[in-house]
TrEMBL record:
<dbReference type="InterPro" id="IPR013766">
    <property type="entry name" value="Thioredoxin_domain"/>
</dbReference>
<feature type="domain" description="Thioredoxin">
    <location>
        <begin position="1"/>
        <end position="122"/>
    </location>
</feature>
<keyword id="KW-0676">Redox-active center</keyword>
<dbReference type="InterPro" id="IPR017937">
    <property type="entry name" value="Thioredoxin_CS"/>
</dbReference>
<protein>
    <submittedName>
        <fullName>TlpA family protein disulfide reductase</fullName>
    </submittedName>
</protein>
<dbReference type="InterPro" id="IPR036249">
    <property type="entry name" value="Thioredoxin-like_sf"/>
</dbReference>
<dbReference type="InterPro" id="IPR050553">
    <property type="entry name" value="Thioredoxin_ResA/DsbE_sf"/>
</dbReference>
<dbReference type="GO" id="GO:0017004">
    <property type="term" value="P:cytochrome complex assembly"/>
</dbReference>
<dbReference type="InterPro" id="IPR000866">
    <property type="entry name" value="AhpC/TSA"/>
</dbReference>
<keyword id="KW-1015">Disulfide bond</keyword>
<dbReference type="Pfam" id="PF00578">
    <property type="entry name" value="AhpC-TSA"/>
</dbReference>
<keyword id="KW-0201">Cytochrome c-type biogenesis</keyword>
<dbReference type="GO" id="GO:0030313">
    <property type="term" value="C:cell envelope"/>
</dbReference>
Amino acid sequence: MVSLKGSLGKVTIVDFWASWCGPCRAENPNMVALYKEFHSKGLNIIGVSLDKDAKKWKEAIAKDQLTWTQVSNLKYWDEPIAKQYQVESIPAPFVLDASGKVVAKNLVGAELRAKIAELLAQ
């Protein structure tokens, strides 16, 4: 069990993705770079997978070197956390402040990096 409240940093990205999602896998190197650059400054990432095959999910985590917390109920689009966040397409990163409030969503690449840098500078 992973508690979102217990996983919050200064800034937390809740990243909805899946091993079968090409755009998600293409974005993963950007997430890895963000984590390496900003984790020591207070960034946490929680990966929430919309996978249904545990083996493929775990292989993608290892191959893409996703070293942060990863969770999945292996329920595909019926993932309860995705329903709570009203996720309709992936990748879908949600940026949360230290209190857990969503302050940005669906940013990727340079836009996401700029938002994280801005929030951590405050």
